[in-house]
Amino acid sequence: MIEIRRGVRPAELVLGSLDVTRDVLDVRDVVTAYLALLEGGSRGEAYNVCSGVERSVRELATMLLDRAGVRATLRTDEGLVRPHEQRRLVGDNMKLRKATGWKPSIPFDQTLDDVVRDWEERVT
Q1: Is the pLDDT of residue 124 over 80?
Q2: Average pLDDT over every residue of 49-76
């Protein structure tokens, strides 16, 4: 995105399946969930550390491009599409919430802004 904005890369993002969905959670919320589980989780139990919100890869890419102020074409590269890919992936974090009181605290918009800002700093 940042390379596109700076004119060093064509205005096209080449991805795998654009219409699969994923449950995306800010890594900082993942860390606080793990810490909460260390204190309040039950040994041997499995917990879903997730946002509970399903978003398509297309939606995620579009949101990041918008935040970066970039117009680009999204294109699927069939070579990146997994033949038996899970089409939808979203978790239920209710067990984790009940056991620990944890819930995601970082707004998704902030996560997107922070990702773009990080790439701005990394891409020279």
Answers
A1: no
A2: 97
